[in-house]
Structures
1.
Amino acid sequence: MGDNEEPQGSRSPLAAAPDEPLPHPDPHRATVLVIGVIATVLFVVLRFAVALGGHEPLPADVWWDDAMLEGMSDAGLVIAWVPSIVGGVIGAPVVGILIIVLFLWRRRRWDAATLAVAIVTVTAIGAPMAAVIARVRPSESLAESVPTSFPSGHTAVATTIAVTLGLLLRRWYVWTLGVVWVVYMMWSRTYLHAHWASDVLAGLLEGIAVACLVWSGMQAYRIRRAMASQSSPQPDA
């Protein structure tokens, strides 16, 4: 090992990285792509199931909503409002921008671009879809009343950010914190009766699909740039 090299395991997950494209394909890209496709298919299946039911709550939705109603408490409401605010219309973009700025500050421009594209994509897909589907929220909703229940935008954005960061940073604690945050968000949205259980499940699938497909696409684009750069003639010295 040369004097200027450091062990791979010792590098911080947000350590400054060269801006050059990856010279070789990521060995996990095919697996991530498959997961993204599977999540997309499952999302479509769930969408059809909701449509076939006339956009009414599924039996599992009613059961879960009743369970949340029976277990409601003042302390639970305070706990539930935290992810709802942090991952809301204002909170989620602020969090995303802060992480992107941190990546840029650490000279990880590709990671910043990947996260930015993922957040923009999931928002561009989810918000219009929810408006078109116009599924009515639970009647006891404490958070929102607009009929844009399917899919859960809070859950979709939270999942997209969590999975994208996990794929970019490759640290077990990043994945662990991401899973905890997404589950917390899913519970919060149903505890506040802002969504049916199938809405947050759809948001989860949408977030996984977008994060995996965007990450895979950005990886492919980096490889293509690297190959083009290597094959282009170099100027004479």
Note: Helices lie at 29-52, 59-70, 74-86, 91-105, 109-133, 153-169, 172-191, 197-231.
2.
Amino acid sequence: MPDLSIRPAGPADRPVVERLWLMFRHDMSEFQDVLPHADGTFRSDRLHMAFTEPGWAPYLVVLGDSPAGFAFVRGLDGPARVMNSFFVVRGARRTGIGLRVVQEIVARHPGAWDIAFQDANTVAVRFWRRVATAIAGEAWTEERRGVPNRPDLPPDVWISFNTLAESRG
């Protein structure tokens, strides 16, 4: 298997992340009842914020020489970090890469974490529960929260854990 690299995404990486973003939003459109804009793009405010706003950190996942995914973390300047967006290309899924990426990013930003996903995305449900258990053992919670400004959508599922919980005891 080629080498895996998880690194902060800089301005030079943005065009690659933008192309990966289209794949991510295409995948998510199945669960969020959205269609692309007339120009074939999707909503990209979170993409923009990840590269420009304080408290955000974009990461690029590279497998060998190929881009294999990205992750956007927000809330670095607040009480809880949020895995805002997470994507691994289909050709790299189910290889353990996703878990490794999340573990490394969470280790870079210790503390309280919140991660949202949709119940209808059964693959994500299994993945994020497995991630939470791998990182926090049984010390994680799950709750449903309404999607802001989208009463037409079912609530998101939120997993929460704290990587500092063991050191406080």
Note: The chain is about 35% helix and 30% strand.
3.
Amino acid sequence: MIEQLLNGEQNMKAAVFFPGIGYHCDKPLLYYSRKLAQECGYEETIALSYTYDGGNIRGNEEKMQQAFESLYEQAEKSLSAIDFDKYDEILFVAKSVGTIIASAYAEKHSIRCRQILYTPLKYTYNFAHREAIAFIGTSDPWSIVSEVQAFSQKQQVPMYTYENANHSLETTDTLENLKILQDVMGKTKGFLEQK
């Protein structure tokens, strides 16, 4: 790092965190992945925050579209001052509906980024993913899990699946949840350290 600075070759890295509805950036998956990103040299970490009060959207295509449009607009405003061109490496970390927003934003703005997709939805795969990994639970009520797995496989996005885990990658067993979280973060760190 010192040698890079002396030679004027500082590698600028930024990570943006896209939460889900009700799953903000202080919840386990996004909190610990943000810590890992900082450990791996992402000196700029941007944790987005947005709100949606349109009620339950699960299983309602129209409400899902409305929620996406509202949250996407909020994300656009939050990121409008960021000059992504100045970064050598960009990472998008997203949860649930945030995976759709992150993927749509990257495509619209032609941002070459790596992506970590926690509990992506089928709509996430309406957008291409150049370099990404994904995580899902077999008891995720927001998805037909086999369908999301198939979309992920088609795009060659490695997907890690956790037995009996829900949309937060949690089960009814607290100690099991800690094991899952440790495994997810281990795989997250491995992805972050890949060159």
Note: The radius of gyration is 17 Å.
